[in-house]
Amino acid sequence: METQFINIKPNEIDKQIYRIMSFENLVEILEMRRNTLLNPEKWDDKHENMFLNSTIEISGMKLKSQLGKSIFCQCWSFTKESDTMWRAYSTQKNSVKISSTPRKLLSGLLKIDKNVNKVFVGKVTYLTSPKLKKLFLENAKDWIFEQGGLGQCKTLLYKRYPFKNENEVRLIYNTFTNFERLILKYEIDPDDLIDNIVFDPRIEYSDFKSKKIKLQELGFKKSIVKSNLYKSPDYNTIK
Fold first, then answer.
1. How many Å apart are CA 54 and CA 65, to the nearest integer?
2. DSSP H helical segments within 98-229, as ranges?
3. How far apart are CA 35 and CA 31, in angstroms?
4. Cα–Cα nearest to 95, from 79, 109, 74, 81
5. What does R_g of the chain's alpha carbons equal in angstroms?
6. Measured distance CA(189)–CA(131) in Å, rounded
7. 137, 50 contact by CB (below 8 A)
8. CA 211, 106, 20, 43 torsion: positive or negative?
9. Would you say 34 and 103 are in contact if contact means Cβ atoms under 8 Å apart?
10. Per residue in 97-133, pLDDT tens?
11. Cα end-to-end span (Å), the chain
12. ∠ at Cα 118 (41, 160), nearest 5°?
């Protein structure tokens, strides 16, 4: 299993990772018991899909790569909490943050597809634009045509330096099948995948309480709390 962790150190395999999503998406996970992966075509930053979306030149002919149609991903972070991430991914101030580990992410998908050449979890490396260009020119051909699947997954683990604050971890599933769709869902046990749930620190307490009850009614028995990121300190009394 360790060979399926890319750029992740042994002591990080069971380290907590985090993902912010809408409350509605979390309810769907608990009700449907399915996790959702996206094709990189849905990502905003087109640099992230640069390798798989490249033009391949063979014997003077230029062909648009179709490799990206077979890959689906999900993005997490090693960063436990930050103001920046709440504001970026919880614009309505009522989203939730779930936690898991790289091992649990990998194990959950391997229950659906046991092919070790198709399922990976990797940590993103952040590079300046010149270094990213150099990486592309030196490695694109080898990674794209690598037969085992690892090379193609590696292409999705490099981003430009301005995104470094995301501290990102990605679950990557290479189906080796060209799908004409951008979303892939697979069955999971939410109790195995999700360790705890934290609500946006800006959510109204009454809203938090009602949503917490909803999650408990759906069978989630682990910790559900509201973030105290903006809570007033208890040492601000001057004596």
1. 6
2. 102-110, 129-145, 150-154, 190-193, 205-217
3. 11
4. 81
5. 20
6. 40
7. no
8. negative
9. no
10. 999 999 999 999 999 999 988 999 999 999 998 998 8
11. 57
12. 45
